[in-house]
């Protein structure tokens, strides 16, 4: 059997949009769906979140802002990047998962993986939605919380740079175009 192309090794794809300010960095963290407490009853190895991050490839559509603070409709397509997660990424994500699991077991929101909770953290928790003002005080009130996992801006920027390193240069495409012959 032939080897699958890297793009198709992961079984699930999701599409995310990211606005990119003029200076070229991420303006926002990348959010996922709201956390459901009952999903953290499983060990990491058997969890929904391990399967999600292990088997999902994110197609990240980048929208460049012509000027700072541009609104939807004013942004210009900058490119599309593929984001997947390597073993080091998954180890960091596992740490965040286990912190949420411990938070639920001890009923102590101070144990959540807030930004900068540990070294090399790529996945953090934060409030999601317009009515998420009280997300941490109501964390245990319902099975579905007002919080979600976010990929931090640093890992997103790193993934863009990794993709750009592997992308053929403009000069490469010009060389191919100049050397093409038409019959």
Structure description:
Residues 168-183 have low confidence and may be disordered. The relative contact order is 0.16. It is built from 4 helices and 6 strands. It has helices at 48-55, 87-106, 153-165, 170-179; strands spanning 12-20, 30-36, 56-64, 76-83, 123-127, 144-151. It has 183 residues and is α+β, with helices and mostly antiparallel strands.
H/E series, N to C? EEHEEHEEHH
Strand percentage lies at: 25-35%
Strand count:
6
Mass-distribution shape: globular
First and last CA, distance: 35 Å
Low-confidence blocks of residues: 168-183
Total of helices? 4
User: Helix content range of the residues, please?
Assistant: 25-40%
Radius of gyration: 19 Å
Oligomeric form of this entry?
single chain
Largest sheet: 3 strands, mixed
With strands numbered from the N-terminus, the spatial order across the biggest sheet is 1-3-4
Structural class by sheet pairing and helices:
alpha+beta
Q: What's the average pLDDT?
A: 84
Topology:
Elements: E1 12-20, E2 30-36, H1 48-55, E3 56-64, E4 76-83, H2 87-106, E5 123-127, E6 144-151, H3 153-165, H4 170-179
Parallel strand pairs: 1-3
Antiparallel strand pairs: 2-6, 3-4, 5-6
Helix pairs in contact: 1-2
